[in-house]
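2024-03-11 09:14:02 DEBUG pipeline.ingest accepted 1 chain
2024-03-11 09:14:02 DEBUG pipeline.ingest length=212
2024-03-11 09:14:03 DEBUG pipeline.predict start
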Amino acid sequence: MPTQYSLTVRNESTQRQDLCVYQQPVDLGVRNAMSLAWMTAPAWPHTTVTFEWTLDYCFTWSYTGELKPGTRFRAQEVVRANPQDLTTNQILFDYTDGAHRFVPGKAFGVPELGSLYIRELPTVPADGAAVGIGMSNSGVFAVQAQPNENLVFTPHPSYWLTAGTYVHGQVLDVEQISNSVELQYNAGFEMSAVLHPDNTWSISTGTQSVAA
């Protein structure tokens, strides 16, 4: 059974907030990949939300048009993936009879364990869709689909939490997020966070409590 991670967040700010967990593309290996609002939930002051997930990866794509901050990535297809299995860490992205889809197939070159491969076929139109990878059946990173590309994602989970106005699947400009805090699961698989009235965070782990 995959290990389950959890994050409990309490809103002690003065207003309703959309809580958002996302990941940073640390050494991801795909140029121009964008972070998505991976998990979101609304929370009124003095209420608590719990997020839960496992390290189960997937391939995903969406009709987005131009992929840019504020665009919403609504998954049209999700296919399970495993970076540690050469039979399920690669897939083809196709466009046939007016529609996109994933189909089984081999990536270019010699795929290696630890990465996820999406080979975009020559039939794929430019700028109509976006492809990417997800975790726990929800998109994490996306990039604009282009013909004749071989995308190699090498995931290194880097979890971040923020609050504001967000919707699930929203394309984020992570450089513009000012009140985010990193979640480092070094002491176990459960963490908690409190958003204070001044919009700062306190993060509690199994061994310590830190302010951010």
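2024-03-11 09:14:41 DEBUG pipeline.report The CA atoms of residues 34 and 171 lie 7 Å apart.
2024-03-11 09:14:41 DEBUG pipeline.predict end
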